[in-house]
Amino acid sequence: MANHKSAIKRIRQSEKNRIHNRIFRARTRTLVKKARTAIDAKSDLAAAQEATKMAVRDLDMAASRGTIHPRNAARRKSRLMKQLAALSAK
Q1: pTM
Q2: Could you name the CATH architecture of 5-89?
Q3: Is the Cα torsion angle 43, 46, 49, 53 positive or negative in sign?
Q4: What are φ and ψ of residue 4, in 5° steps?
Q5: Fewest C-beta atoms under 10 Å: which of 35, 53, 59, 63?
Q6: CA 68, CA 2: separation in Å to the nearest integer?
Q7: Is the pLDDT of residue 85 over 90?
Q8: What is the pLDDT of residue 90?
Q9: Model confidence pLDDT, tens digit, residues 14-73
Q10: Separation of alpha carbons 75 and 89, rounded Å
């Protein structure tokens, strides 16, 4: 356990931030999963595009908040867009 007052405060802040960030990470994962499911369904291109758009927006928001690393968001967006482009090409 921490001995300094500032360390104790930092532990409290870290826990609060962890709980706060968990909400955004979970929502991002959910939207990315929905986008992948829509792309894998291969039936409705418009729905897949809309789901991907929502996932990309949420990834950008999570990266701007510092919840996830910007390169992590860019990598996930790139993979989603690649899958969507492959679906659109067919």
Answers
A1: 0.86
A2: Up-down Bundle (1.20)
A3: negative
A4: -95, 150
A5: 53
A6: 27
A7: yes
A8: 76
A9: 999 999 999 999 999 999 999 999 999 988 999 999 999 999 999 999 999 999 999 999
A10: 21
Cα–Cα distance between 23 and 21 in angstroms, integer?
Answer: 5
Q: Which two tokens stand for residue 82?
A: 């690649």
Provide the pLDDT for residue 35.
97
10 Å CB burial of residue 3 (0-12, 13-18, 19+) is: exposed
For residue 72, what are its two tokens? 């992590």
Q: If 0-12 CB within 10 Å is exposed, 13-18 middle and 19+ buried, where does residue 65 land?
A: exposed
Using CA atoms, how far apart are residues 55 and 73, in angstroms rounded to an integer? 10
